[in-house]
Amino acid sequence: MGKHVLTIPEFTKMYNLNEATVRVDVTRAPENLPTVLRVGRLIRFTVEAIKQWEDKNQKR
């Protein structure tokens, strides 16, 4: 069974993004990122949200 959520380090590595920038954008510019799943203080990106984000950005 595949992984259904990614941590911030996993997401940034996959897309070659700066981890610190993504951490800031999660709270200050969430429209630049896939929708996040918050569990307490943990932040995760669901695979489905990432796919929707990719589709949205390809249309630009």
Verbal overview:
By secondary structure, the protein is of the alpha+beta class. It has one domain. It is built from 3 helices and 3 strands, in the order βααββα. Strands 1-3-2 form a 3-stranded antiparallel β-sheet. β2 and β3 (42-46) form a beta hairpin.
The biggest beta sheet, please?
3 strands, antiparallel
What is the gyration radius calculated from CA atoms?
A: 11 Å
Looking across the biggest beta sheet, what order are the strands in?
1-3-2
Shape descriptor: globular
Share in β-strands? 15-25%
List the helices and strands and how they pair.
Elements lengths: L4 E2 L1 H8 L3 H10 L7 E4 L2 E5 H12 L2
Feature tags:
3 helices; 60 residues; single chain; 3 strands
Quick rundown:
50% of the residues lie in helices and 18% in strands. It is built from three helices and three strands. Strand 2 and strand 3 (42-46) form a beta hairpin.
